[in-house]
Amino acid sequence: MHENRMSRRALLQAGAAAVPALAVPNGLSPVWAWQRGGRPNVVFVFGDQWRAEATGYAGNPDVKTPHLDKLAAESVNFTTAVSGCPVCSPYRASLMTGQYWLTHGIFYNDKPLSNKATSVAQAYAQAGYDTAYIGKWHLNGHAKGASMAEGRAAFIPKQRRQGFQFWRVCECTHNYNNSMYYGDTAEKRHWEGYDAIAQTREAQKYIRAHDSDKPFVLYLSWGPPHAPYHTAPAKYKALFPDPAKLWVRPNVPQHQRQEAQKLLAGYYAHIAALDDCVGQIVQTLRDCGIEDNTLLVFTADHGDMLLSHGQTKKQKPWDESIRVPFLLRYPQRLGRAGRKIEAPINSPDIMPTLLGLSGVDIPSSCEGRDRSGWITGAETPGEQAALIACPVPFHQWSYARGGREYRGVRTQRYTYVRDLNGPWLLYDNREDPYQLRNLCNRPEYARVQHRLDEHLYEKLRVTHDAFLPGPEYMKMWDYGWDGSDQPADRPKTAV
To answer: pLDDT truncated to tens, each residue of the chain (495 aa)?
Structure first.
């Protein structure tokens, strides 16, 4: 082993050393001299399992995203936006709390997020905002003894909504054409037709009906383009009649290219439908005369491998899984000249960044960093590293399916990942954008790997992450395993 390469033992020993708790890194948000119109409205729109490259503005030759392409031309585009724990519930818990997964405790899907942290909705409400959430939630979880399906269909009471007032939500469903939801009561309702379109109409209705004298924050959470891939409305599926003509990323194995093309046809149909929905939201803001003073974000909770590297779905550390689109437009403060920020922004950073741009105090429970200074030009990012992690592999990437615990960092240029056995992956994403050449442990990259090890150690130190085996975290949080997720060499525990 190269003398500059930090062993996992040394990494854990260093992380276990007595380190005083750090002060909240972001501090208070800046106080602006507000222009007319006051604090901005916030509309946060996100899809489920939408990877970063699957937009026209990102260079994909096949997707149909004219509305997003136009939005990107007027937005700050974070080209290295990272879903640090790339799976549904962990991302959403970080979105709500600004915390890392081993702090809020949601590192496994379908576990209940506690009310301990001040949520983004509560922070905005304390500043005088109305708050609204429409669509997929996936943070209520299910109790031991209940099935995952029961939890995903259950009514979510007000005390479990993290401070959101207006509520049109289902915990989780991917039955997009027969999708149920709840309002304030336990009466089960159904969205008409394709749920993302109906949810968008509900969001438009909320925006139009809102009292213009009071700012609002609205989260619109779509289920697509998550699988099933072939359930978009017929008009959008008709845009991709011949899957064999679709471009396939070079990191898809040759024997799986035809299968990948069939998946992409359905995936892109969902995306085309959602792009129209984005256009509807933008037009509604314009029609209501609040476009300039609305902070509009478009992003996703994580990506989708779609057979890149022969892999499916998420949780994995490759770019198709961890990188997501992230556009932020706020014309009144930022103008309409689109620009790119290549430094990585991580999922725990979203809450403090939105609050910072809105002039709202950032709660002390928040761990993410306020990146509003990058956006306004008040700060220069410098070299940054986003922590990526899989504390416990589960479901579609369970131990039985090859899942493994890992920790890593994604910088503007590099991806570096360790598993429990030591260094695992190192990619130079500038020279190798499809991550085809693993440079890990190569002598000529020893200095780069050492520097990335230092970045990783610092991230683990700040987040108090000892990088333990997954079952240790399940035990710490008293979580039961769903289905066959339990490692085969360990005794079964009750669900």
So the answer is: 333 334 443 443 444 333 333 233 333 333 333 333 479 999 999 999 999 999 999 999 999 999 999 999 999 999 999 999 999 999 999 999 999 999 999 999 999 999 999 999 999 999 999 999 999 999 999 877 889 999 999 999 999 999 999 999 999 999 999 999 999 999 999 999 999 999 999 999 999 999 778 999 999 999 999 999 999 999 999 999 999 999 999 999 999 999 999 999 999 999 999 999 999 999 999 999 999 999 999 999 999 999 999 999 999 999 999 999 999 999 999 999 999 999 999 999 999 999 999 999 999 999 999 999 999 999 999 889 999 999 999 999 999 999 999 999 999 999 999 999 999 999 999 999 999 999 999 999 999 999 999 999 999 999 999 999 999 999 999 999 998 999 986 544 432
The amino acid at residue 194 is Y
- pTM for this one? 0.92
Q: Which residue has the tokens 């009649």?
A: 241
In order, the DSSP letters of 23-59 are PPSS-SPP-----TT-SPEEEEEEEES--TT-STTTT
Distance in angstroms (rounded) separating the CA atoms of residues 322 and 413: 14
* Domain segments of the chain as ranges: 41-376, 385-476
Q: Are domains 41-376 and 385-476 of this chain identical in fold? A: no
- Give the phi and the psi of residue 136 in degrees, each rounded to 5: -75, 135
Q: What are phi and psi of 328, to 5 degrees?
A: -135, 120
Catalogue the active-site residues. Answer: 88, 138
Q: Which numeric CATH code is attached to 385-476?
A: 3.30.1120.10
Q: What strands, in cross-sheet order, belong to the sheet with 216-225?
A: 166-170, 130-136, 216-225, 41-48, 294-300, 326-329, 76-78, 339-341
Respond yes or no on whether the N-terminal peptide bond of residue 225 is cis (omega within 30° of 0): yes
311: left (phi over 0), alpha (psi -120 to 50) or beta: beta
**DSSP 8-state secondary structure symbol assigned to residue 295:** E
Residues whose CB is less than 8 angstroms from the CB of residue 297 and which lie 6 or more positions away in sequence, other chains included:
42, 43, 44, 45, 46, 326, 327, 328, 329, 350, 354
CA distances in angstroms from 359 to 31, 117, 283, listed in the order given = 5, 20, 26
Query: Cα(284)–Cα(194) distance, rounded to whole angstroms?
Result: 20
Using alpha carbons, list the distances in angstroms from residue 213 to 37, 39, 41, 128.
9, 11, 11, 11
Domain 41-376 sits in which CATH superfamily?
Alkaline Phosphatase, subunit A (3.40.720.10)
Beta-carbon count within 10 A of 285 CB: 20
